[in-house]
Amino acid sequence: MSTSAHSPAGPASSAADAAPSGGSVTDRLVEANTRYADKFSDPGMDARPVLRVAVVACMDARLDLHGALGLELGDCHTIRNAGGVVTDDVIRSLTISQRALGTRSVILIHHTNCGLESLTEDFRQELEREVGQRPVWAVEAYSDADQDVRQSMQRVRTSPFLLHTDDIRGFVFDVTTGLLREIQPAS
Ligand SMILES: [Zn+2]
């Protein structure tokens, strides 16, 4: 998540730059897809990730996981949500990733300047007041990214559903330098 202003600078080949004028943003993306498919050839890959790793990360638009981690198509499973929080649904995906598709390692990535740092659980109360219904999910807001990474590692490590919990590592990505900083798990 991001609370900062959108940066106009982007890759020259992005959908925004190459799109014809007019149309919705989705129209632009679909147009970009036709150009992508023109150059695409079936790599003949299996669904099982080559590196046998699953990456859980925030959905933040500034975090390019493939670029930041040197990942190629087919290398990993990517599981993203607001904050990169290990929710029940992330555990669901990790369980399928390990038990059905052969991954063994888990990498957790939060980042600096995350939108979740500006929220509190009051967000749920405000939603309830506005729409008359409280969401079943927690906001999972946090003020200390390091501590939240440790909590996320602990949630993965203690899940009864996962087969492999011996290679779980957590990081904070700095959106200004592009560098990962590793977080040591709680002892
Ligand atoms: Zn974020």
Written overview of the protein:
This protein is of the alpha/beta class and 187 residues long. The chain has 2 domains: 12-41, no CATH class; 45-183, 3-Layer(aba) Sandwich (Beta-carbonic Anhydrase, Chain A), CATH 3.40.1050.10. The protein has helices spanning 15-18, 25-39, 65-69, 88-99, 122-131, 145-157; strands spanning 53-58, 76-81, 105-111, 168-173, 180-183. A hairpin with a 6-residue loop joins strand 4 and strand 5. The longest helix is centred in the N-terminal third of the chain and has 15 residues, at 25-39. Residues 1-12 have low confidence and may be disordered. Bound molecules: zinc ion (ZN). Residues 1, 58, 60, 83, 111, 114-116 line the site of zinc ion.
What are its keywords?
2 domains; 187 residues; Beta-carbonic Anhydrase, Chain A; 6 helices; 5-stranded mixed beta sheet; globular; disordered N terminus
What is shown here, in short?
The chain has six helices and five strands.
Topology of this structure?
Layout: H1 15-18, H2 25-39, E1 53-58, H3 65-69, E2 76-81, H4 88-99, E3 105-111, H5 122-131, H6 145-157, E4 168-173, E5 180-183
Parallel strand pairs: 1-2, 1-3, 3-4
Antiparallel strand pairs: 4-5
The structure holds zinc ion.
Zinc ion is lined by residues 1, 58, 60, 83, 111, 114-116.
